[in-house]
Amino acid sequence: MYDLVIRNGKVVDGSGLPAFKADVAVMGNRIVKIGQVPESAREEIDAAGKIVAPGFIDPHTHFDAQLLWDGCAKPALAHGVTTIVPGNCSLSLAPLKAKHRMRLVGMFNQIEEMPLKAFKEGVVWDWETFSEYITRIRKGLAINVAPLVGHSVIRLWVMNEAATERTATDAEIAEMQSVLRECLDAGAAGLSTSYVDMDEKLQPVPSRYADAREVDALASVLGEYGRVLQIVPEFYDSDLTIARLDQLAELSLKYNIPTTFSPLFMNADNVDAVNRVMARVDEQFARGARVWPQVQTRPIDISFSFSVPSLLFMRFPTWYKIMRFGTPDEISAFFSDSENRVKLIAEAAPLEGLWPTLILRHVETDANQKYVGKTLKEIAELRKTTPVEAMMDLSVEEGLEAHFLSAGMGHNDDAKVAGLLNHPRVHIGASDGGAHILSFSTYGDTGYLFSHFVRDLNLMTVESAVKKITSDTAAIWGIPERGMLKEGMIADIAIFDPSTIARGEEKFVNDVPGDGHRYVRDSHGVDTVIVGGGIAWSEAKGYQDARGEVLPGVREMVAA
Amino acid sequence: MPVEQLSRVRKSILPQVGDDWSHIASRELPDLSEKDAIASLQSWNLHVYMRAAARMGTGSNNILPSDVIFVEPPLAYG
Question: Are A285 and A307 found together in one domain?
Fold first, then answer.
């Protein structure tokens, strides 16, 4: 008798080969048979009409904090994601000395838009080392985690305040190498670094003070373990992106490591630039380097209110400064002052093209409900003012709880984006899961891949889409025994209906510690998600078994 | 594919210890006067030079140790 049999489904095994009808039997945490399974099982799932695929792997997330209060990384698991990679962009929550906690919280707040209150009320700070953090998140873990360690955090651990003042000495670099080894031994999947991010004081994050010598030394440690280097390049400029991917290629070749950079967006105005980047990627792969660009599936939609700083206003200093450093009362007063308004209106001139599409999506007062769903251009006409002034006035009237949505801002040319997603040297990822929670939903990118690019547009096959987010990802990241449905592999499985799988409508929910809100999307068409042989989530019963693991590195697996 | 066969991209460097505009100018653009070389470098590297306005960087030198510094203008792509 088996523990679990999934019957009558169509198996898309992650290899990219055509789907086939078969049953899948599981014993313990492993797949033991794929084919005809006449034997009975303690639990059976009828998957008729559905696809049985390996669980999806999301290689770019920031669930570091959420995992401390939610071992399911909700709602990622319900979308079929069985493995996540947190710790991207130079930021992880370990190793972290007690004295640096608030500094790192400030960085997470600034860069990943995680609310300060969530850290204050949702986190019990009972770790310092990476190993202690891993022990901490293992409790109640329902999703697999392959965590990166952040370069900025290692720098802070070794150099303290000097981490954002200068290059490291030889002794400090040697100490960083030792700390990185400890993290990799404790289960880190690799190292992340950033060349663009700014901290809570709008100063460069620690990783940006590292010279090439330091990055080389850390990459050499990754080479000892064959682990991944992830970077955020200056993605707004193709020449800079190419220079960074050349830098990665040299490290990849020198130390025989996989590297990945994200994001890479395809917009109407940067098609040639992205083509140049991809041509360079192709050349570097031809040399034998591994430089995987990560491309997200969803278009860029940004929501905002003036109660928290928004990405949308980062390039407008007066706007961003008051959003970043002002209290709600100060922001309201600033918006109401006539002299400030002149300055703000002038600075926001480049947003002119947004007003006809920028929508008011939520208000608190009854008086303004009549404007919800209308564009700022329409609201301005009704209120006999300008769109930018209408935005400020509504925000003040709503105590800064007027929420706006700018949809389809980029990465929305379907044919061109599909061209990238199908590219053999593109890594599908960059969801940013768990981050930017007040700007957009970072959940449901896999549902969007299947509903939009596979089913609606027929620009990808379901087999190639599954391969891209399962076995390809496992191979790139060196994640052993996952990413394919094969006898002997660990049973991480997503069962979904290809005719209905989708991401749900974006909604604003109140489930963040500290009475916080975030944008999420429910899963549609996902039937059952299995992690380590246990049913972690099903549409019928919700969240169930918690068999998630912190995935061991290659060295540990070999030693075992 | 040997590195020599990679297609030409815009030439850049990573800063060496102690580099500032003047050091990079004298090393990378020795045929220009220091003033012209620095002006050229700054115009080709607005992502670094414009940090002065935002008061970012290491003291009076706004070049970060991790910066990519272009040592020629953008190439003409066609």
Answer: no
Instruction: Please list the residues that pair with A245 across neighbouring strands.
Output: none
Last residue of a domain, one of A358, A381, A408: A408
Interval A218-265: pLDDT, tens: 999 999 999 999 999 999 999 999 999 999 999 999 999 999 999 999
A283–B7 CB contact, under 8 Å: yes
Taking the C-alpha atoms of residue A331 and residue A396, their distance in angstroms, rounded to an integer, is: 8
Given a contact cutoff of 8 angstroms between Cβ atoms, the answer to whether A435 and A61 are in contact is yes
Q: Is the ipTM of this complex over 0.90?
A: yes
Last residue of a domain, one of A376, A408, A440: A408
- In this prediction the pTM is 0.94
Whether A61 and A49 map to the same domain: the answer is no
A interface with B, Cβ–Cβ below 8 Å: 165-167, 195, 198, 202-204, 207-212, 215, 234, 237, 239-240, 242-244, 246-247, 272, 276, 279-280, 283-284, 286-287, 317
Which domain covers residue A10, as residue numbers? 2-53+526-559
Q: Which residue is closest to B19 within chain A, CA to CA?
A: A211
Burial (CB < 10 A; 0-12, 13-18, 19+), residue A339, is exposed
| A235 inside domain | yes
* Residue A489 forms part of a structural domain: no
pLDDT band at residue A307 under the 50/70/90 scheme: confident
Verify that A107 and A227 share a domain, yes or no.
yes
Rounded CA-CA distance A442/A435 in Å is 7
